[in-house]
Design goal:
The protein is mostly helical and about 130 residues long. The chain has 4 helices and no strands.
Length: about 130
């Protein structure tokens, strides 16, 4: 049996490694969220004020669709940041990397790829 699964939690050094990874992902995610927020705050300056009414209506529809899409991306990014911050809390209380369904350790490779996960692959596949 793999030694990783004989222990019931990750070591403090391993948790520090995960924390560093998560902090870097949070920094990147916050930059992306800031970019999305900036895009949402920019008014439509395409210079279509003097075009015909039909073109203006089509333009407004496209702008509205783009804003809705950008807003959805911002909401998803905020949720991602929240999940990463919850992972930091789990690191702090040394429960990080423990599957909430099985109670077993989640493989390190999975945590490196999806550091905010709370499910092992076996538990995820059961869903």
């Amino acid at each position: 049996m793999n030694e990783e699964f004989k222990k019931n939690r990750y070591s403090d050094d391993e948790l520090a490694e995960f924390k560093e990874l998560i902090l870097s992902k949070i920094a990147i995610a916050k930059e992306e969220l800031n970019t999305l927020a900036t895009a949402l705050n920019v008014s439509n300056t395409n210079g279509t004020d003097d075009t015909g009414g039909t073109h203006q209506t089509l333009e407004d529809g496209a702008v509205t669709l783009e804003r809705e899409s950008t807003n959805q991306l911002a909401v998803r990014q905020r949720r991602f940041i929240d999940q990463l911050e919850l992972a930091l809390i789990r690191i702090g209380n040394k429960t990080y990397g423990i599957c909430r369904e099985t109670g077993n350790l989640i493989r390190k490779e999975r945590l490196m790829a999806v550091p905010h996960t709370t499910l092992s692959m076996a538990a995820k596949l059961k869903q």
